[in-house]
Amino acid sequence: MVIGASVLCFGTAVHAGETLDAVKKKGFVQCGVHTGLPGFGIANSQGVWEGIDVDMCKAIAAAVFGDATKYKTTPVTTQQRFTALQSGEIDVLTRNTTATLTRDTTLGLMSAGINYYDSQGIMVKKELGVTSAKELDTATVCVQPGTTTELNLADWFRANGLKFTPVVINSPDEAMRSYEGGRCDAFTTDKSGLATVRTTLPNPDDHVILPEDFSKEPLGPMVRQGDDEWFMVVRWALNAMLEAEEYGITSQNIDEMLKSENPNVQRILGVTGEIGKGLGIDNKWAYNVIKQVGNYGESFERNIGMSSPMKLERGLNAQWKDGGLMYGWPIR
């Protein structure tokens, strides 16, 4: 769905407190997703959307409706994504989007959590014989506009006393074609994105992701400011997936875990307490998220982990007890 710049108007945005009621009334969650990034958000051969960011959308639907299928997707480009959320075209942006101070303070939007810790990198063809980005002085680099990537690239080259020529291309597919066709010496985006798009090239091994990290890229869902109730539903749907992994609750063993005597597990699954009341949803909301979508580790492994075509290691996205940064907030 193409969303023009003309709808960038805060007056049309959903007013504070209304999003959850509006979502319930229409019967589904409308999520802004990537136009096509393997592992994160892409339509499969049957036209069904899948990926770690799509799972985030499904988790929100499961929390609100008890049914993870009650969602719809709106593919949005880097330039369309914020306009779509500001205007109310979508209810939540579940598209690899970096949380930054500027975005939280100037767009009328806010990050609801982090579902993937990333960093920006740069990819070149192996035939160039380049082993470091510091060898790319005067290179041409394909980059998407309206992204933190564009600014990070300029900052890094300037900080290292290097010059480059940006080739700004809106579509990620077109950017990759331009890179592959030789219009650019290099292509830059988040390293997860580089890893996934490399798998789509005719000869993936002919391309190298250089070791430098240009930035910190904490990626996660975003919502409109001023609607705390909806913000909390999105935030806690993510935390439910994180907490479930920490406590060993999976989509496969969850019904057995209902019998657990662990008070934390009992609260997460709604066996005890009123964990849905404050969110305005059913007490079994976290149970429904885990049963129908899985815990965070299941989602990661299925979409981008070592058993997927992406073959990405957990790294920073491992649980905090395993040396990563994923730390679920207590559901109590």
Automatic annotation (TrEMBL):
Keyword match Transport: yes
Keywords from the UniProt entry: Signal, Transport
One Pfam entry name: SBP_bac_3
The keyword Transport appears for this protein: yes
Protein name: Amino acid ABC transporter substrate-binding protein
InterPro entries: Bact_solute-bind_prot3 (IPR051455), SBP_3_CS (IPR018313), Solute-binding_3/MltF_N (IPR001638)
SMART domains recorded: PBPb
Domain Solute-binding protein family 3/N-terminal positions: 28-257
PROSITE patterns associated with the record: SBP_BACTERIAL_3 (PS01039)
Signal peptide: none
SUPFAM superfamilies the UniProt entry points to: Periplasmic binding protein-like II (SSF53850)
Top-level division of the source organism's lineage: Bacteria
Family: Belongs to the bacterial solute-binding protein 3 family.
